[in-house]
Fold this protein.
Amino acid sequence: MPLLSCQKFRQIVADFVEQALSPSDRQAVIEHLHACSLCAHLAHTYDTTRQLCRDALRKACPTELAQRLSAALRDALK
Amino acid sequence: MKPTRSRWSRWLGRGGPTDLPLATVLSPAPAASVVVPTVPPVDSVSSDQGISDAAAAARAAEVEHFRRAQAGDFAACEAIVQARRDSMYRLVAGLLENPADIEEVVQEVFFSVFRNLQQFTFDSSPRTWMTRIAINAALMRRRSERRRPLLALADFRSGGANPDMQAMWQQEGSARRGPEALVLSRELGQASQGAMAKLPEKYRLVLQLRDVEELTAEEVAQALGLTIPTVKSRLHRARLAVRHALTGHFEQRPAP
């Protein structure tokens, strides 16, 4: 299996954290990350950033609004 | 190779968020009161993976609910509201500031969906169609309203989402520092929110649709009228920009 370069890893870091790589590519990435702390740090912080963004933006519809929404739609649709 | 701050800075300077262009915001919604868009087909460069099993199951359920709703099943309509109201709320709230406007537009979105159910032909996913409706409705409502600068702060879970990364950190124990070693504090949460708020809207919206609402890259492309490579590029730049803003908050891990 060819060694993965740091440059190539930077191009596919998004696919790696999204688990969109083929099994062989994924394995190559994992081996590279064990050998390269710089890319491992990139992968780690990139993945963590993705999670932070997800958590920061995830917000439920307020209960009161959800209730009014259901009531309004019930009235309109029945 | 020990990562140093200067090395990170050089890398970021070459290909990272410092190259982020000053973006124009989303194209304004059409002036006409067209609320229900047609979703153009996308030339699929590559279908996107990376959605969770739960998201895949939710998609299947949505399709079923839409079919039943088209047949007049009121319970299916309620199920659609229940399943998608959080997503529609987040989307609209990200584009509008006034709570009253947000509520009205969220209601408009669902009314539009049910008024036009029979027009939906399953050429796209239901959530793509609804996303387009919500964006159009919110942009028409916004007009002169300024974009909301910040969303409310949420509590943050520690660590990233990729199981490969989690496994790697766990396997290596103290030799490498895992997600738990990152400073995932309230300060970090505020910093990440601040960074996202500073993103040009076209980047933030892609990030929201892809990472929060779990639309596939193809669905995001359909919803926003973009190509899949553009979606991926904007998403990557958005994540790098936020990551760059958080650089000082991430602890430097030691050399192995």
